[in-house]
Amino acid sequence: MVAPTPAVDVGGRVIARNALFNLLGQGLPLGVALVAVPILLRELGAARFGILGLVWMFATIFGDLGFGRAGTRFAAEALGAGRVGHLRHIAGVTVAAQVILGLALGALLAALSGVLSGSVLNIEPALADEARLSFLVLSVSVPVLMVGGAFRGFLEAQQRFGVVNIVRFWTSTLTYLLPLVVLAAGGGVVAIVCALVVLRSLGVAAFWAAARSFWCVQQQVGDGSPPALREILTFGTWVTVSTVVSPVLVYADRFLLGSLVSVAAVGVYTAPYEVITRILLVPAALASTLFPAVSALAGMGVDEGLRRTSRRSVAVVVALVAPVAITFMLFAEPLLGVWLGAEATPEMVRALQLLAPGVMLNAMAFIPFSVLQGVGRADLTGKFHLLELPIHGALAWWLIGRFGVAGAAAAWSLRAAIDAALLFGAAHQVTRRAA
After folding, report:
1. What burial letters (b/e) apply to 76-91, b meaning 16+ CB within 10 Å?
2. Are 128 and 117 in contact (CB under 8 A)?
3. Cβ(306)–Cβ(389) under 8 Å?
């Protein structure tokens, strides 16, 4: 019996090309943001800009939440195995799950909009109505945003990162430019949010137009049984656990620093954190194309190719990120002095030096994280994050209480080291058993 022919190319050149697409698609809009954000802050004022920032945050979270990554994984695996007849089933399950979850989360956001704007977020009473209306408008778009994440995932499964990043570039760029147009026309925050919802909806429509072929493939003789509904939903649930817990792990130190020391200390810590963590864009760009590639290799049953691709990816990350991290660690004082001038303090220098090795380890950990989820072990990444949550909380509480800003940086790097050790150990065991 002749094995099915893989329906996707996941060679090293393809992965490198797609990683470059990701880097450009996510990196270029940052230049627009550097220009647009100060203007928006000045024109809107700190409070209204804060509302807009929350809308941006929620829109990003909803776009990545749910079962979209499950659709990517199972679709890429089917393509790697040459079972294209499974795509329609996988797409149907994924989109249905996203719609149901999106409706539930949208209704929850709408129900909580008054509480969020009234007390939880400490928004001044004069702006409470604007905040509530902004959250209500966003709540209507939640199902659309979540389905858009599924459509984008189908394209990533096909290694069509060029299309993905064309759409991503324009939606990300216009996310910063469109508010300026609305302000020039005399609109306020609510009008800006309405315009952004329309923009994101158009982006979803573009993803759908590019991915609609998934619904046109019929089951073929020899395709076998498609993945079970329970299998897809279980994987998606564990991915969602990681998606929800990961931001808590990343930002818990800031909340504890503000609570145990001061809000001013958060500002001191944020500056070095923001500059050093920008280098994570590099491993993130590689990992997002590695994930469907690993899923496809798993579908092909090419275990040695999977391990070779993983090793090469780690080597690339080390080669690109290590020199930058080491430079920040060794020359933290002069670099911060050039960037911040007189605002640079010894506390910032120490924080940057302590964060640099943690960011290096975190960058490397992107690879085993993608490998584990690519071979279907999202349960491990979710369990690791749940395990790390109380450990990081206790470490951060103790270190921040004793050492302030430096303690926050040390706690972040220690958590990154624990996370990297768990992920590399698990990935080694899983890929070795596959041999």
Report:
1. bbbbbbbbbbbbbbbb
2. yes
3. no
φ, ψ (nearest 5 deg) of residue 111: -65, -35
Q: Side chain identity at 125, as an amino acid letter?
A: P
The pLDDT of residue 10: 60
Tokens of 47: 């409070």
Strands (E), 293-379: none
CA gyration radius, the chain: 22
Please state the domain extents for the chain.
12-227, 242-433
Q: What share of the chain is helix, strand, coil (3-state, %, to 5)?
A: 85, 0, 15
Cα 195 to the center of its chain, rounded Å: 23
| pLDDT reported for residue 229 | 79
User: Treating both helix axes as pointing N-terminal to C-terminal, what angle do 263-276 and 303-330 enclose, rounded to 10 degrees?
Assistant: 120
What values do phi and psi take at 328, rounded to 5?
-65, -40
Please give the full DSSP string across 89-108, using - where no structure is assigned: HHHHHHHHHHHHHHHHHHHH
Give which of 81, 86, 85 is closest to 7, Cα–Cα: 81
Taking the C-alpha atoms of residue 165 and residue 212, their distance in angstroms, rounded to an integer, is 17
CB-based contact 69:232 (threshold 8 Å): no
pLDDT in tens, 329-369: 999 888 888 776 776 788 888 999 999 999 999 999 999 99
**Alpha-carbon dihedral sign for residues 350, 352, 357, 358:** positive
Which residue's entry shows tokens 């691709």?
A: 309
Q: Are 370 and 287 in contact (CB under 8 A)?
A: yes
Distance CA 362, CA 366 (A): 7
Digit-coded pLDDT (tens) for 114-154? 877 776 556 677 777 888 898 899 999 999 999 998 899 88
Q: How far apart are CA 327 and CA 373, in angstroms?
A: 32
Q: What is the pLDDT of residues 224-259, one digit of tens each?
A: 666 777 888 888 889 888 888 887 888 788 778 877
- Rounded-to-integer distance, Cα 312 and Cα 371, Å: 12
Q: Could you tell me the CA-to-CA distances from 151 to 18, 160, 203, 367 in Å, in that order? A: 17, 12, 10, 23
Enter the tokens of residue 130. Answer: 């604007």
* Interior angle at CA 98, CA 370 and CA 211, nearest 5: 75
Sign of torsion over alpha carbons 180, 185, 191, 195: negative
- Are residues 269 and 408 in contact, defined by beta-carbon separation less than 8 angstroms? yes
Burial call 246-276: b when 16+ CB within 10 Å, e when fewer: beebbebbbebbbebbeeebbebbebbbebb
Q: How far is CA 257 from the centre of its chain?
A: 24
Distance of CA 174 to the CA centre of its chain: 19
